[in-house]
Amino acid sequence: MYRHHNWQGALLDYPVSKVVCVGSNYAMHIREMGSVTPEEPVLFIKPETSLCDLGQPLALPQGMGEVHHEVELAVLIGSTLKQATEEHVRQAIAGYGVALDLTLRELQGKLKKAGRPWEKAKGFDNACPISGFIPAAEFHGDPQNTPLSLTVNGDVRQQGTTADMIHPILPLIAYISRFFTLRAGDVVLTGTPEGVGALHSGDELAIGFDHRELTTRVL
Question: Pick from 122, 128, 103, 107: which is nearest to 196 by CA?
Fold first, then answer.
């Protein structure tokens, strides 16, 4: 069973709960998906059963079509946020990590075309492989100017920086807290840069985040 942990693997004393995600937060990803830039953040939720350890081999769902990777900055919430200001958000952030927002792309396309919610395409079991977290006090870089990358079998698929977010971290989480109360242990995924694509059994992945690298593979 998944437990929150730090980058070195030590368990963190936070409960595991929901993952609030934002779609369409990087202009080039919006373009590659043929979408229109929304006026406000597009929010959706992954359940706690979607969380799994990114350092362990990835088990993809079978018989449901292509599973696409989306590499994202993950933010661990350390205290309750409701109708929060940006300063409250800053004080409530417990740590930063990196995650894959795994997506059943064909199913998502069908659901979007029918005007239906995306949860089946985004919230399935193990749909959110996530790294350990770097405590906010120990994160010496700028989380709003942090490189993200994903390499598959030696080929760079995704490469970007959190500086390119349409909705930056602090105002984004403040916005989320207008609709969903965030509690300690909740995770916020902040969107993906361009270059999303399908994963296949046997793929070897290298995920880059804040000049660190984490490797995993697809079963």
Answer: 103
Closest of 99, 123, 96 to residue 12, by C-alpha: 96
> Tens digits of per-residue pLDDT, 85-136?
999 999 999 999 999 999 999 999 999 899 999 899 999 999 999 999 999 9
In this structure, which amino acid lies at residue 59? A
What's the distance, Cα to Cα, between the start and end of the chain in Å? 18
Decide: 36 and 29 in contact? Cβ < 8 Å.
no
What is the CATH number that goes with domain 18-218? 3.90.850.10
CA–CA gap between residue 117 and residue 33 (Å, rounded): 17
pLDDT reported for residue 39:
86
| Beta strands at 51-53 and 128-130: parallel, antiparallel or unpaired | parallel
Q: Give domain limits for the chain.
A: 18-218
Question: Residue 21's closest CA among 151, 139, 117, 90?
Answer: 117
